[in-house]
């Protein structure tokens, strides 16, 4: 059993224990608005459209009172969702597949995509000599992400595409916690590191590293971060899910049209410790490579690309059909009607 399968199995066991104690139904009324509890896997500039939806009042316009909690990790996020601690999760689509692989009776359904590429960048300790070539990584010490998570799987997928076997051609380090990876690199661990924003931009400005490539561009489009809920929640609260998808679509359209400066201004309250210039540059980098999805629809090609990445990493027991874990009804309707 893989590491990811193990934590999903543990999560399911916890949920069975807590099911009687936790209230899993959302949609309670708060001053006329339906309350929705959302858990995000981490706090990230990568999720700018979500913060824009909150800050610009798009959820309120739809009659929703959204309570956002950062759950810090795919395992914790999925445990919170399965046990009823949150109503909607913002997390990588691979987690819904891991739950499905464990035979969950109440599957987790993807209903609105937020990001459509990997969000990490290859950062080198020293600037590339001449034009960067992926072969320069061979024989180096590479500080990667956690095994089984989408950042690491997308990273390995990209490396293999360029003829690099991560387990053979690199000194691959994967035992550093996600939150500690930037600090580990800054303290001297590794010659290359895989980083999200704003750490990549911050390291460049501080002279600690140099962005030489984008894993998002290299690994292609996939449902990287998606809003999802249990099938039972969607069945009982279809009107709330539709309103949620509408608000997300409004934010996505606003982000597509807005400048990096305006987006940074809107999401700044969620990143009070981040320099405004770094925030703007990070948003610009994600916009330029098309990381922010223009709508919430998870198309079949993206879904299959996700499974190709998982399969390459050895984390997929068997392929899951698009219609089994994706419900595009809400995103499609939002795309047509949300203004």
User: Which quaternary structure do these chains form?
Assistant: single chain
Strand content: 15-25%
* Count of β-strands: 11
| Number of helical segments with 4 or more residues | 17
Major β-sheet profile: 6 strands, mixed
Give me the CATH fold name of the largest domain: D-Maltodextrin-Binding Protein, domain 2
Category by helix and strand content: alpha/beta
Apparent shape: globular
- SSE run: HEEHHEHEHEEEHHEHEHEHEHHHHHHH
CATH superfamily of the largest domain: Periplasmic binding protein-like II
Protein described:
Strands 1, 2, 3, 4, 5 and 11 form a 6-stranded mixed β-sheet that branches. By secondary structure, the protein is an alpha/beta fold. The chain contains 17 helices and 11 strands. Helix 2 crosses helix 12 (about 240-255). The protein has helices at about 5-20, 50-55, 60, 75-85, 95-100, 150-160, 165-170, 180-185, 200-205, 215-220, 230-235, 240-255, 260-265, 275-290, 300-310, 320-325, 330-335, and strands at about 30, 35-40, 65-70, 90, 110-115, 120-125, 140-145, 170-175, 190-195, 210-215, 225-230.
Short précis:
This protein is an alpha/beta fold and 339 residues long. It contains 17 helices and 11 strands. Strand 1 and strand 2 (33-40) form a beta hairpin.
What topology does this entry show?
Elements: H1 3-18, E1 28-30, E2 33-40, H2 48-55, H3 58-61, E3 64-70, H4 74-83, E4 88-91, H5 94-101, E5 108-115, E6 120-124, E7 141-143, H6 150-161, H7 166-169, E8 171-173, H8 181-186, E9 192-196, H9 199-206, E10 210-214, H10 215-219, E11 225-230, H11 231-236, H12 238-257, H13 260-267, H14 276-288, H15 300-312, H16 322-325, H17 329-337
Parallel strand pairs: 2-3, 2-4, 7-8, 7-9
Antiparallel strand pairs: 1-2, 4-11, 5-11, 6-9, 6-10
Helix pairs in contact: 1-4, 1-5, 2-12, 2-13, 12-17, 13-14
């Amino acid at each position: 059993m893989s590491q990811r399968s193990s934590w999903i199995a543990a999560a399911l066991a916890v949920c069975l224990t807590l099911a009687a104690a936790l209230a899993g139904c959302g949609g309670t009324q708060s001053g006329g608005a339906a309350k929705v509890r959302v858990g995000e896997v981490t706090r990230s500039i990568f999720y700018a459209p979500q913060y824009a939806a909150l800050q610009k009042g798009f959820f309120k316009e739809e009659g929703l009172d959204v309570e956002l909690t950062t759950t810090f990790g795919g395992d914790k996020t999925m445990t919170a969702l399965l046990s009823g601690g949150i109503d909607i999760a913002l997390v990588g689509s691979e987690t819904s597949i891991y739950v499905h692989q464990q035979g969950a009776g109440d599957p987790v359904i993807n209903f609105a995509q937020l990001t459509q590429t990997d969000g990490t960048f290859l950062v080198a300790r020293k600037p590339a000599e001449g034009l960067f070539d992926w072969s320069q990584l061979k024989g180096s010490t590479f500080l990667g992400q956690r095994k089984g998570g989408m950042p690491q799987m997308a990273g390995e997928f990209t490396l293999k595409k360029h003829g690099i076997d991560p387990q053979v051609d690199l000194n691959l380090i994967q035992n550093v916690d996600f939150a500690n990876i930037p600090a580990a690199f800054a303290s001297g661990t590794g010659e290359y590191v895989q980083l999200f924003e704003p750490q990549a931009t911050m390291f460049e400005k501080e002279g600690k590293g140099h962005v030489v490539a984008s894993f998002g561009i290299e690994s292609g489009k996939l449902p990287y971060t998606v809003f999802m809920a249990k099938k039972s929640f969607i069945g009982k609260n279809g009107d709330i899910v539709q309103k949620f998808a509408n608000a997300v679509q409004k934010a996505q359209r606003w982000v597509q049209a807005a400048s990096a400066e305006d987006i940074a201004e809107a999401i700044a309250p969620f990143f009070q410790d981040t320099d405004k210039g770094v925030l703007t540059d990070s948003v610009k980098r994600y916009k330029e490579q098309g990381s922010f999805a223009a709508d919430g629809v998870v198309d079949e090609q993206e879904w299959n690309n996700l499974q190709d990445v998982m399969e390459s990493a050895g984390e997929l027991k068997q392929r899951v059909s698009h219609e089994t874990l994706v419900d595009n009804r809400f995103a499609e309707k939002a795309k047509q009607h949300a203004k």
